[in-house]
Amino acid sequence: MSSPDRLVYMANQIGTFFRSQGHDKAVPGIAEHIKKFWDPRMKRAIFAHIEAGGAGLEPNVLEALTSLKQATSLPGAQ
Amino acid sequence: MSLIEEIDYGTPASKSETMVTLTIDGNQVTVPEGTSIMRAAMDAGHQIPKLCATDMVDAFGSCRLCLVEIEGRAGTPASCTTPVMNGLVVHTQTERLKKLRKGVMELYISDHPLDCLTCGANGDCELQDMAGAVGLRDVRYGYEGENHVFAKTHGRDNDHWMPKDESNPYFTYDPSKCIVCSRCVRACEEVQGTFALTISGRGFDSRVSPGMNESFLGSECVSCGACVQACPTATLTEKSVIEIGQPEHSVVTTCAYCGVGCAFKAEMRGEEVVRMVPYKDGKANRGHSCVKGRFAWGYTNHKERILKPMIRERIEDPWKEVSWDEAFSFAAARMRGIQTKYGRDAIGGITSSRCTNEETYLVQKLIRAGFGNNNVDTCARVCHSPTGYGLATTFGTSAGTQDFDSVEHTDVVVVIGANPASAHPVFASRLKKRLRQGARLIVIDPRRTEMVESPHVKALHLPLMPGTNVAVMTALAHVIVTEGLVNEAFVRERCDWSEFEEWAAFVAQPNNSPEATAILTGVDPSDLREAARVYATGGNGAIYYGLGVTEHSQGSTTVIAIANLAMATGNVGRPGVGVNPLRGQNNVQGSCDMGSFPHELPGYRHISGEAVRDQFEALWNVKLNPEPGLRIPNMFDAAVEGTFMGLYVQGEDILQSDPNTSHVVAALSAMECVIVHDLFLNETANYAHVFLPGSSFLEKDGTFTNAERRIQRVRKVMTPKNGLADWEVTIGLAKAMGFEMKYSHPSEIMDEIAALTPTFAGVSYAKLDELGSVQWPCNEKAPEGTPVMHIDGFVRGKGKFVVTEYVATDERTGPRYPLLLTTGRILSQYNVGAQTRRTENVVWHAEDRLEIHPHDAEQRGVRDGDWVRLKSRAGETTLRAEITDRVAPGVVYTTFHHPDTQANVITTDYSDWATNCPEYKVTAVQVSPSNGPSDWQKAYDAQARQSRRIAPAEAAE
């Protein structure tokens, strides 16, 4: 499995865990988790994927990533 | 330096708090009620002669040497079996006692070989000592009578004589030297709990018998060596002692195998290890050990160990031996070159859970401060990272809650996805001791492990289908909540009540009941209900779990579910209860504590925290990157994509231990510089450009932290055979990369750790020397450490209940892959086997076998011992089958100790949702008969042979 498919899969897996906590807790929960544990290149790749339409992402996950993207300023590739 | 002689008090210590005072040989002695007179005398410094008594086992009273006289009492009672009483007046040496003891010794010696000068136990023989102590000068009976000593007596074969049993690779059983004190039998029963030994026959025919008069190797003996340690004569002796002679000095150190962290005396002659003897003051092991720690240290001087640094341009080239400086500058130039070409984040490293805290700390420091990124991870990623996430979320600390002594206060033990009898044997022995005293055991495991049934142990076994842990945990919670078994007072006081209510409402849903989930889990609902009731109401309930919990897509969820159960039943915060991850490697707890995870600095503080970063930046004098780095599986993905090109791996064999081997091969092959720092040319080294030889745990100073958060010293007993201790190697590499780290001794590294890590603030080598060990947190609030955590409240404040919804893994069985493969370990081998395969332990386990149920085997025409092909969506391999009903129909099982099997060719790259911990424990497979190695195995073997070539230093002519 290669990026971005693998990243979409991982993000949805995180989304699935938070699903049972309901939308209002799930969205910030997912965003926080990805913020804390993903390396910048992974974040850049998934943000690029959102810009390209975000295909395959569960609604909660898409919402969480969109808000995270807005709140994040990543250093450029180095 | 001299030999550390531990006092043998003769009988175990009493735990009574009531004190009793008596007079022994004119001295007043005050001891706890229940103490034997023998022990009380030893307390007062008077050693009563003894042979069958030793303080590792209960008194037996058979040798009749420890007799005493008590004023006002008739006869001469044995001091080992006679308890103290207030006001007793005891005499340990009288004319009558002297005569009796001499008589007893005379009888013993009349049937014992007198080859003391050439005997293996010469200088360490209690029989010899006692003969001296009682003043034996003459044996009136002679040596010609009936005896066990001579093969022939009066020209005829002596039926009482038995030849030596040399079958065990590590110790010899010489029946002619046995005095039938039964210390070995009792050690096997009481200390180890295996019950492999007995005394067969009666009177003069009494013999120590492994199993039913079998050889030691052929019996149930697990070679823990407790019997050898207990033997007062040369009957059971380490072969190394027979070969080398008695040690002359010893040093206390810590075992480098599993997460139990046994303390040992390394008994030495010069720089040669004579034997390893478990240390009675070791708080993790209390004087016991297993076959690995006590005996399997031969790998440290195995001929395959690499002692010189090596480099090569391409992995197709043979290795070239070079100086340390050349290796460092070659490695540094490559790593810096990669950063110039691909960016600062294109390199990283993996710290070792086999190395010391100090070494691990240095590697992560080199990466964060020297490489300038946070691409550091450790093998805990692939074992217990979900424990870190799950327990930090619910309790607030990434570690187990108890010490091992806690099990002595436990009434109900729940073992989930762990097989301590194989993987944490010394803890298993301590657990079994408690079970024999009446504690109850629940085992949740797909396989009927050694824990489910063993002598005097019978567990309530919930044999679940692999991958359904969360469903089973939630069903247990369902029973506890719906049957009103919640400890509400505890939850109201210690936990967030609204989160609890939300959780309770969730688990109470009918679809989470044992009856509703049985179709997924395969667990009998009435057994599950029984288990829940026993855990919730049976007294102190303690959960111990292993990789069968963590190595799943829902590993973190299961850890959270376990924590929920413990909180709901009030089983946290006192001795005897708790949530206890059984950590795999000797220092996996330590490597996590030391900041080996890409998102966390030492002490589990997130890298994005500015205040924390400031502290490190000030001391390290660098600017730190605030973004988390890559985890191991992410590193592999990034390597394949071409953004991660250089890796420094200290003491870990990622190629063999990480899942989906072909993906790992692809990743390693894509990298431009792989630096392997290890004792051996391991499987990962087949793809390496630089090999830095490592040092063994015997060759360096440092500390390990075991599964109970106990920090213990590792002490150098010999010069590093490779020239440098591992911490010095990391410093050398760092220096070549332009990052200087100046330490003259590991104690200085620990001082830096203590200065930067609040939970380690009180730790220093001086304190460890003084106390022997401490459990973190060790700081101003807890200067002597913290055996039990969360006593007055959870570290995070209120305990957090989190809803745990069962989600089936995406790894599914189907027509092509109808069976589920799960993996595990065996007692004699350790992890990928790099160490134990290079010891005599291979006599117990020379190859990995596939356990398959008779039903599944018959359907496929597979017979016991046949070669079978094991195929998953990720790959295929071959190994031999073992037909057994330890596994359920539909489930197959194997170990992963041997590189030629490559169990991880089969495992997939599915992983835990929170931590990317791989899903080793569930793989859909098919099994079919086979003629021999798969194409993959052949190709792999050819590549490995090619890759391990070392160019001769000079041309032959």
UniProtKB/TrEMBL annotation, chain A:
InterPro entries: Formate_DH_dsu (IPR021074). Pfam families: FdsD. It comes from the Bacteria. This is Formate dehydrogenase subunit delta.
Automatic annotation (TrEMBL), chain B:
InterPro entries: 2Fe-2S_ferredoxin-like_sf, 2Fe-2S_ferredoxin-type, 4Fe4S_Fe-S-bd, 4Fe4S_Fe_S_CS, Asp_de-COase-like_dom_sf, Formate_Dh-H_N, Formate_DH_asu, MoPterin_dinucl-bd_dom. Pfam families: Fer2_4 (PF13510), Fer4_7 (PF12838), Molybdop_Fe4S4 (PF04879), Molybdopterin (PF00384), Molydop_binding (PF01568), NADH-G_4Fe-4S_3 (PF10588). Residues 18-96 form the 2Fe-2S ferredoxin-type domain. Residues 248-304 form the 4Fe-4S Mo/W bis-MGD-type domain. CDD domains: fer2 (cd00207), MopB_CT_Fdh-Nap-like (cd00508), MopB_Formate-Dh-H (cd02753). Keywords: 2Fe-2S, 4Fe-4S, Iron, Iron-sulfur, Metal-binding, Oxidoreductase, Repeat. Residues 169-200, 212-241 form the 4Fe-4S ferredoxin-type domain. The keyword Iron applies. Residues 927-957 are annotated as: Disordered. Residues 96-135 form the 4Fe-4S His(Cys)3-ligated-type domain. In the C-terminal section; belongs to the prokaryotic molybdopterin-containing oxidoreductase family. This is Formate dehydrogenase subunit alpha. The lineage of its organism: Bacteria, Pseudomonadati, Pseudomonadota, Alphaproteobacteria, Hyphomicrobiales.
